[in-house]
Every structure is written in C-alpha cells, then in structure tokens.
Fold this sequence. Notes:
Blueprint: H1 5-10, E1 15-17, E2 20-22, E3 26-29, E4 36-39, E5 46-50, H2 53-62, H3 69-72, E6 78-84, E7 86-88, H4 92-96, E8 98-102, E9 109-114, E10 120-125, E11 133-137, E12 141-142, E13 153-154, H5 161-165, E14 174-175, H6 178-184, H7 189-198, E15 210-212, H8 213-218, E16 222-224, H9 229-232
Parallel strand pairs: 5-13, 8-16, 13-14
Antiparallel strand pairs: 1-2, 3-4, 3-12, 5-6, 6-11, 7-15, 8-9, 9-10
Amino acid sequence: ESRGLGDVYKRQYQRRVRGIALTTMASVTCSCDTVTLSFPNATPKYRCGCCCTDCLQRCYITHRGSPPEDQKNLVAPVDFLYIDSTLMRPDEATMENLEMFKLRDDGGNIHIRAKCCGTILLAQSQGAHKPHAMMTFNHGKHTFSEVPETKLIVFAKDWPADKAEALNPADAPVVVDPFGEIGSGQVSEPLGALFAAFQVEVKDDLSDDIISVTDLIDAADVGVDNSYFDESRANAPGNIH
C-alpha cells in the first residue's frame, strides 16, 4: 500500500537524532487551522520566558492586537519553546500561505507567519539561534512532546520595577539584562545553558523531505511589520524602546 507525504507526517516512526529516540513528529498550527508546519524532532531544546518589548510586540502581532491578558498586563512573560531549526518541507499550498518579516529593517529576528490569520508560527534570531535553533510560542497550537518546565526568564529590565520584582525566581531564574551579562563577561549558569541549547547541532541527513528554516527564509522575500510598537511599549521603563 502506497503512502502519501501526509501519511508520512502522521505515522509514528523511530529515528535517532543526537542519540535521542524520536517516536513522533511535532506540528505547529495557525489559529484558524489553515496552515500547519511539521517538524522531525518533537522534543524541544529549551523553554524560556521573555519580558522584552520585542517579544511582547510579537505577541500582539500574532494575536492581532489582543494578546493573552497575562502578557498584556505584564503578569507573565511571553512563553517560548526553542526547537531544532529543521522542518518537513511545506507543500506548495502551504508555502503560498506563509510570509516572512522583521519588526524593523535592522531587526535580527525573522518571523514566519500564516497569511490567513497572521499567526506567527516560527521565528529565528540570525545571531543567537542560527544555525541550529528557532522558536515558537508555547501558548500557540502545537503538538511538541515532553514540554519542559520554564528554565529561565530573561529581559526583566523591560518591565516596570514592580512587575519585574513580582517574578518569582523560585519558578525560574530571572536574568534582568542578558546583554549586560554578556558584555561584562560574567554570564550566569542559566543564561549559559540557554545559549548552549541554541548550539546543540541538528542532523541534516535525515531525509530529502526535511528543510532548514534558513533555506526556507532564503527562498522568500522578507518584509517589515512594526505593528503594535506603541502598545507593546506602553508600560516599559522610559529608557526602553
């Protein structure tokens, strides 16, 4: 009996990447269920909460101006999963419903979203994440297995002092200013673990049906969308833009 590519995506299989046994693929689906991207590795590399204004802006954009209340009111950081930077090659119809953008011309992150409803499905920092990692929202519609506990919260400096102080380090270590740590040469162990996760190599020889997010981005035009800039910075300290 022949199997189409859709069946290949759905069926369970056993494959080893970096010594980890994979039993299922994972997927991310847009909010209107039109676009689904599938991934050969269902196990996230890392989970991190981010308080930076750019990530809040991403949250506004993906929810078309109505982010979850906890993020809008700065009760909880934006919740991200960092995953391998490979995905199953999208078919033509899916590719036609994807678009790539940055938040600004000099932005370091490239986002992949569904044209149908605007959901941001993936993003990759061209500095920190590339070539082995990318990120997706944990509060989106995904099927990643073994989702870890949040291991780190970063960029608390972008929140007002009272909101930042309300973050509980017992839940996850809080790094107020990652760039400050990097610049000082005194990188804390939790921040070091995050960057180490970005560099865990991805096998690139699994299948011809797998494409890197870099190749996907390189084949597309990348625009700019700076929507909800003011909303995402309305409560930030005065020196944050």
